[in-house]
Amino acid sequence: MLNIVERIDNPSRIDDYVALPFDLRKKSRLRVTLQSGEEAALLLERGSILRGGDCLRAEDGRIVQVQAAGQPVTDVTASSPQALTRAAYHLGNRHVPLQVGDGWLRLEQDHVLKDMLIGLGVCVADLHAPFEPEAGAYGGGHRHHHDDDIVNLRQPPGMRRHG
User: What pLDDT was estimated at residue 48?
Assistant: First the structure.
């Protein structure tokens, strides 16, 4: 089995491809089937999220490019920027991974969230498409102030971040 061990930038060639939905692109240890049909193991640094277009190097030097596979998603549009912003606010308040486009939002299909969005008066359409949600304000996704408690304990009183 081919072992894929690291992410690389700007390869001179691409030898194979792997298409993965978002849920699998969040895993650092995973058995996959490449476009060529070959079985491979992802053995990547923990905590990273693969994006469509990322390139990976295998132990034997081969380069594999990641493709964002189509998956069940819901696209959200609205009759006004205010209505779309309101929908984004309510989805963000629920910590929903969200892809933001020019005049649209995309989220993984969820019937409860779909009902909420319809209640907000926006247009929703279920489809099968790639999903590339925002990485988060700090590049690593969602965080709360309590995530920094260990670091903040070293700071003088009154210097803690609140958020």
Answer: 82
